[in-house]
What we know:
It comes from Paraclostridium ghonii. InterPro entries: 2-oxoacid_oxidoreductase, PFOR_II, Pyrv_Fd/Flavodoxin_OxRdtase_N, THDP-binding, Transketo_C/PFOR_II. Pfam families: PFOR_II, POR_N. One of its GO terms (molecular function) is 2-oxoglutarate synthase activity. By secondary structure, the chain is of the alpha/beta class. It contains 14 helices and 14 strands. The strands form three sheets. A seven-stranded mixed beta sheet has the order 3-2-4-5-7-6-12, with helices on both faces. The chain has a five-stranded mixed beta sheet with strand order 9-11-10-13-14, sandwiched between helices. A two-stranded antiparallel sheet has the order 1-8. The longest helix has 18 residues.
Amino acid sequence: MHKKVKLLQGNEACVHGALYAGMKFFAGYPITPSTEVAEISSYMLPKVGGKFIQMEDEIASMAATIGASLTGLKSMTATSGPGFSLKQENLGYASLAEIPCVLVNVQRCGPSTGLPTSPAQGDLMQAKWGTHGDHPMIALSPTSVRDTFDLTVKAFNFSEKYRTPVILLLDEVIGHMREKVELPNENELEIYDRKKVTVDKKEYKIYDQTTLVPPMANFSDGYRYHVTGLMHDETGFPTNSTAQTKKLMDRLMDKINKNLDDILLYEEYKIDDCEELFITFGCMSRCTKDAVDTLRKKGIKAGLFTIKTVWPFPEEKVTQLSENVNNIYVPELNYGQMIQEVQRVCNSDCNIVGINKYNGEIITPEEIVDKVMEVVKCQVAL
């Protein structure tokens, strides 16, 4: 069977991936540089029997996405910058209430209104800690247009599999980049649908504590249950019990932490013998890969570890890699966010160097090479 080959923008590939995964509902509010996700969803969803709605703001669009998911529809919303901030309260609600949904954030330069059409990666920490309280979070970050398609499918799969919101953390470069993409055929990629409820309606417990991920009944299926943002028991009704609260929170964390082998996605490039290691994510992976090739030609053993599941952070893998290299470089379009995680988990004596831009420009391969040469020459001189 011949595969479809298309010229797609990253934001467009996101919608194609969502539809491939079975998206049937999108609620959003247009905001640069994510607007194309909503625009394309608005005319593609009705063609497959789905529903699109433009809400009055980002708070309402997140709420509508949650509501649609409760009825059984695979649901998505998209935003950027200030809109991501507005979605955070309902994102926390979805985490505690265990409601599957996908939230796309095409990052732009901030804070506040910032530079609406310029690239940045400044929402990395917000993706994990943007909403209040302790909560589990899965966030994926693609490096290309085809990768955006694939990780959108993964985002829906993780969301349905673990009953949790999943963030797709694009950046403006990936969102607006256009590339030739070979789309997978139907049934080529795994598609995960939420577990079906098999127990009697009178015995059903929406938050059954005997399993990490309880089956979720749709509102339209005749199962009666309560959904709340308060701490709750197995039936979904609020509780003030400290024992119940601990039991609930432990399960929420365990369903992610005990499945890291499934959730953690990354890519390795020339790291087997590397002495100078790059750790990065999103659009900076491509620039860094070019820099690795240039450094290799100069006789410097450079390698690249691209993190695609940015949350949970791949702690064990990064710790392991740090034990065999001289220096770790973290190129990122912010003041220094991922480097904090790298520093936290590295127990070895390797030197950790940040390579940063936060003015709306990308870091070029030449700038990355120059930084490495500067560090290496200084160490040789010592």
